[in-house]
Amino acid sequence: MKKIAVFVSGGGSNFIAIHRQIIQGNILGKIVMVFSNNPNCGAIKFAEENSIPIFIINAARYPNAHTRDEFLLETCLKAEIDLICLAGFMKMLPQNIVKHYEYRILNIHPGLLPEFGGKGFYGTRVHEAVINTGKRESGATVHFVDEIYDHGPIILQKKVEVMETDTPESLAARVLKLEHELFPEVVKAFCENKIIMENNKPKILEYNEN
Ligand code: GRF
Predict the structure, then answer these.
(1) Cβ–Cβ under 8 Å, residues 37 and 7
(2) Which of 29, 66, 111, 167 falls between 20 and 30 A from 177, CA-CA?
(3) Closest CA to 2 of 195, 151, 182
(4) Phi and psi dihedrals of 128, rounded to 5?
(5) What secondary structure does DSSP assign to 91-114, as a single string?
(6) CA of 37 relative to ligand 1 center, distance in Å
(7) CA 57/CA 71 separation, integer angstroms
């Protein structure tokens, strides 16, 4: 059973999707703690309701970033975390965590990386850019996290068609629905030790498209 730490900042729908698959017994893992910069977000409410330990790690609590980073790593080490999931975490993950947990941190992005990623490409901005550049397809990406924003090796992507009539909001809603399938699928594979690195690229063993 893998021990999972989830980092959140927003509504928490991806976190909830992963949690649901765990409760249903589809993922061999346990969410043992949730970290957030935002104590008032939907994700934190869900963690409270489900008695998952919460850690708020914003500048108000930790004026000293170094102290915060040390605390974060120590907390993860003490809890023997196997996997970190960034589920709508709007802050850069501290470098000490990124280094220590190489190939053990997953992020979900609401676009088809490497396009429409990096600084400034978050939330509706991704969907606006996709529509404004006339793309016919978009989707979601789960990748390992490295030191650069939205840059780490891509594990899995799922695509959706972009309709003529799409607004950033309608596209966002369709992509988010896809994210709720994609993210738990990758977490499941990780928890079953089915994600391996081959020629510096992640590969999911026995992966079945459907
Ligand atoms: C998702 O679109 C995710 O791709 C992005 O932030 C959003 C989080 O949504 N990184 P939620 O908090 O999981 O509902």
Answers:
(1) no
(2) 29
(3) 195
(4) -60, -45
(5) SPPPHHHHHHTTTSEEEEESS-TT
(6) 14
(7) 9
With tokens 């309608």, the residue in question is 170
Each residue's pLDDT tens digit, 74-111 = 999 999 999 999 999 999 999 999 999 999 999 999 99
Q: Which of 109, 127, 143, 180 is catalytic?
A: 109
pTM: 0.96
Gap from CA of 14 to ligand 1 centroid (Å): 6
- Helices 168-191 and 13-23 cross at an angle (nearest 10°) of 40
Which of 16, 35, 176 is the best mutation target for the ligand 1 pocket, counting ligand atoms within 8 Å of the beta carbon and taking the most? 176
Residue 198's beta-bridge partner residues?
A: 201
Rounded to 5°, the CA angle 158-195-161 comes to 5
Write out the two tokens for 101: 């947990």
100 is catalytic: no
Query: What secondary structure letter does DSSP report for 121?
Result: -
Q: Determine whether the shortest distance from the Cβ of 202 to ligand 1 is under 6 A.
A: no
Tell whether ligand 1 has an atom less than 6 A from the beta carbon of residue 10.
yes
| Ligand 1 touching residue 90 (CB < 6 A) | no
